[in-house]
Specification:
Elements (H helix, E strand, L loop, with lengths): L2 E7 L3 H16 L5 E8 L3 H11 L3 E3 L2 H6 L5 E4 L6 H10 L3 E4 L7 H14 L3 E3 L7 H11 L8 E7 L16 H4 L3 H4 L1 H11 L3 E9 L4 E3 L17 E3 L5 E8 L4 E7 L5
Parallel strand pairs: 1-2, 1-4, 2-3, 4-5, 5-6, 7-12
Antiparallel strand pairs: 8-11, 9-10, 11-12
């Protein structure tokens, strides 16, 4: 069976999830290819080395630019914070790599458009990790809709709720800064919900939304803070520049109405 060499860029929370997926996918599905976990790329050499040993990556690298230029790499899997996505995707496309990219795709529409156009121009496969549409329940729902067994759809109600930053002393991680994340749960969580809605219901014609930041300052992030993980508390604080919660209502092209709730403050 043909092998493909994979490079993963980003070794934290999503890097671990993707590493597990690359290892497990051939055991559950007939993918027609054997992925080789070739190189893991991260900013912290010691942490990246530990990550590689734990998840089975053959090599490590600290510079993503070197990774995307390697002729032996077939697939670039991007698991970095959002602000890095655009530059890596564009460079990977120009080097003829197939691209897996975490959501949300980019900081804004202009970046997303540039990424898409670069991948299309290069003629490479490109995939955004909206993985929920591939769960069995969602696939079955789409089948029922396509077969007309549900009938006309009038409403869509989507909710993606978390509670991992309700503590005011949770650190100011990159997720809470617009320059790195683009937005809060409106991007991070609603990106999944909107993808599912478009997959099952159709395109959106009109949108109205409200976003709220409940805690406007937080302790600066320590080195041990990250996704779902608070670190040591600093006395110095910084400004939160993204939403903590977002409520959105839409009208779909087929006339159905939709509501979307996303929050990192949904305790209980």
């Amino acid at each position: 069976m043909k092998t493909v060499n994979v490079a993963i860029i980003g070794t934290k929370f999503m890097g671990k999830a993707h590493s597990n997926a690359w290892s497990q996918a051939p055991k559950f599905f007939k993918v027609g290819l054997t992925p080789v976990l070739k190189v893991a790329c991260g900013q912290d050499p010691a942490g990246t080395s530990e990550f590689a040993q734990n998840w089975g990556w053959e090599e490590t690298e600290a510079d993503w630019k070197k990774v995307v230029e390697r002729p032996d790499i077939d697939i670039i899997d991007i698991c970095t914070p959002t602000y890095l996505h655009k530059d890596i995707v564009v460079a990977a496309a120009r080097n003829g790599k197939q691209i897996f990219c975490e959501k949300p795709i980019a900081l804004n529409y202009a970046e997303a458009k540039e990424m898409y156009e670069a991948a299309e121009k290069a003629g490479v496969l490109h995939y955004l990790n909206h993985n929920y549409r591939r769960t069995p329940a969602v696939a079955f729902a789409r089948q029922l809709i396509e077969q007309g067994k549900i009938g006309r759809i009038f409403h869509w109600c989507g909710a993606y709720l978390q509670d991992w930053i309700t503590d005011p002393n949770f650190n100011l991680t990159w997720h809470l800064q617009k320059q790195f994340a683009g937005a809060g749960p409106h991007y991070d969580l609603n990106s999944h919900s909107v993808d599912l809605a478009r997959y099952l219901i159709g395109e959106v014609d009109s949108v109205s939304a409200i976003m709220k930041t409940f805690i406007e300052e937080r302790p600066l992030a320590s080195k041990d803070a990250g996704t779902f993980k608070a670190g040591s508390v600093s006395e110095e604080k910084g400004k939160v520049t993204v939403d903590d919660a977002s409520f959105m209502v839409v009208e779909f092209s087929n006339g159905a109405l939709g509501s979307f709730q996303s929050s990192r403050f949904a305790s209980g």
